[in-house]
Structure of Cell division protein:
Amino acid sequence: MAKDYVARPRTSNRRKSKRPVKNKQGFPFGLAVVVLIAIVGFAWGLYSIQGSAPTQETPVVKAPAKAPSTTKKPNALPEKPQQRAYIEELENREVIVESNPNLNQASKPYQMQCASFRGRDKAEETKAMIAFSGLESSIKRSEGKNGVWYRVVLGPYPRKRDAERDRHILQNAKIDGCSIWYWNWD
């Protein structure tokens, strides 16, 4: 059977004494004597060094007195500055601008190559994946000393920044490994 511990009266195993408990701690006379001796010693030390300090007079340095100014009033405003004729100065000024001849020339266009395969069918699959990401690519056939390759390229791009933007779009579509080069073949 289960016991009900909550409703059970609390009993203690200690015996209670009917005698009153006396406070065994009294006034700490020893501590009071030590504190009193320390205070008296400190006061005697201060009294003994009171007259033994050497006295030196420090010279007093006075600030030089200002001569009163007769031309200016103490609350007067400063003189009004003269105005410069900036408009006339700018109209007569000649500005020389050096131009960079390389900036005026059209730079080479860029292309981005995302894959190269031996078979055209794999190149077509990659082209379709790129089309699903919203970009248009083309397949270029190139022949070299290693045989025929089908390259999946995007571009031409007038600036490299445009090619970088499209490469980030392809990276978000999980198409990695695209390289950006100068456009050098048709």
Observations:
- Strands lie at 110-117, 138-144, 147-157, 179-182.
- The mean pLDDT is 82.
- The longest strand covers residues 147-157.
- The first helix runs from residue 29 to 48.
